[in-house]
Amino acid sequence: MTSGKLLSGDIAFADYLLAEARVATVSGGVYEMPGHFRISTACANDLLDAAMFRISRAVATFTEPENILS
């Protein structure tokens, strides 16, 4: 949960990363792995480092929902 919004699924997470971290990812559901995401590592190391930093900063604000149903 971030900023009071619940992210539901890998597509919502990929959309969030694009909007908040400016990092394009592919939802895992596209590859029959829902709940995961993919990134391309075919770029310069400094670009990958910057993307990982932005992702970590974006997800650092997440909080657990107050009521989680099992």
UniProtKB/TrEMBL annotation:
Name used for this protein in its record: Aminotransferase class I/II-fold pyridoxal phosphate-dependent enzyme
Organism: Paracoccus alkanivorans
